[in-house]
Design goal:
Strand content: 5-15%
Shape: elongated
Structural class: mainly alpha
Distance between the termini: 85 Å
Number of helices: 13
Number of domains: 2
Radius of gyration: 29 Å
CATH architecture of the largest domain: Alpha Horseshoe
Largest sheet: 3 strands, antiparallel
Mean pLDDT: 84
Low-confidence stretches: 5-25
Order of helices and strands: EEEHHHEEHHHHHHHHHH
Strand order of the largest sheet: 1-2-3
CATH superfamily of the largest domain: Tetratricopeptide repeat domain
């Protein structure tokens, strides 16, 4: 968006519009597109100052003026929508890594401001495409940060779940990948984020398998992938979902096998054997199952030797 399309009526030397005295103060008439629009002096000043800061690349100050405009000038018609779009643009810059100066010297992240702005945009924009875009940007942002901090993947999962539950599954957003349909992409992202959140066999595998006793259809990467395969079978084939599910099964099996090894190293072969048997029973055909079978056989053989 390159500036606001605002025309003016010139009354004498006045710019922007005609000031009209009233109990509420001056009223200005702005031409936006083909229509004349009434605006209070206060709203005009907020818009002017926000635009001025924006053109000066002072996004923090511009965002504050625009936010106040959105709070106090809700009857400004299309101008309101354009300011909301401008806020979305600024919030995107903040999420992308734009820094702010503190005390004229220090440069600090504006990431937190960007998240808050996107969330406010969702509240203001209702069920519009802009609201969906803001929700997607928050989810994407958390996911991209998961590379450095895995807990961000859980935040991303929650955000994608919110997107999935809040918006039409058939809504399309330009540039959204990999499927181009919001519901499909959100469900696939939920599975991906939980799979990426898993930290390995030494840690809880609930991100992969789901929480015990949970009835949530989207709890755990495995359930999300299964839901995707059920709802979008042709797309699941293209995306190799069966292979992803096999990989998750292998990881969960390795987790149980690792627990068996843990007990084995501490001399508790009985507990270890229980886990080896569980791996063989629950995850047949996996590499972990074959290893569990070998470990169980070795333990049983050792037990027979001890009896002799």
């Amino acid at each position: 968006m390159h500036g606001f399309r605002v025309g003016i009526i010139v009354c004498g030397a006045a710019l922007w519009g005609c000031g009209v005295s009233s109990v509420m103060g001056e009223t200005w008439y702005l031409q936006h597109g083909g229509e004349w629009q009434e605006m209070s002096q206060q709203c005009k000043e907020l818009l002017d100052k926000g635009n001025e800061y924006y053109e000066q690349d002072k996004y923090i100050k511009a965002a504050r003026k625009y936010r106040k405009f959105l709070d106090e000038c809700k009857d400004s018609g299309e101008l309101y929508d354009e300011v909301l779009e401008r806020q979305y643009e600024i919030a995107g810059e903040f999420l992308a890594g734009r820094k702010k100066r503190v005390l004229g010297v220090f440069r600090m992240s504006t990431y937190a401001e960007g998240i808050k702005m996107m969330e406010r945009i969702r509240e203001r924009a209702g069920d519009s495409e802009l609201a969906a875009k803001a929700a997607v940007e928050v989810a994407r942002s958390y996911e991209s940060r998961g590379r450095k901090k895995k807990s961000r993947y859980i935040s991303a999962y929650q955000s994608w779940l919110d997107v999935y539950e809040s918006y039409d599954k058939q809504m399309r957003l330009p540039g959204l990948s990999p499927t181009g349909e919001l519901g499909k992409d959100a469900l696939l992202a939920m599975a991906r984020c939980q799979e990426l959140a898993y930290r390995g066999p030494m840690f809880d595998a609930a991100d992969l398998s789901g929480r015990p006793l949970s009835e949530n259809a989207f709890d755990g990467a495995r359930r999300c992938y299964e839901q995707f395969r059920t709802r979008y079978p042709s797309e699941a084939k293209k995306r190799g979902i069966d292979a992803k599910l096999r990989k998750i099964d292998e990881e969960i099996a390795k987790k149980d096998l690792w627990t068996g090894h843990y007990y084995q190293t501490r001399g508790n072969r009985s507990a270890a054997n229980l886990y080896y048997q569980m791996v063989m029973r629950d995850w047949p055909g996996t590499e972990a199952s074959a290893e569990a079978r070998a470990m169980l056989a070795e333990n049983m053989s050792g037990k027979e030797k001890e009896k002799k």
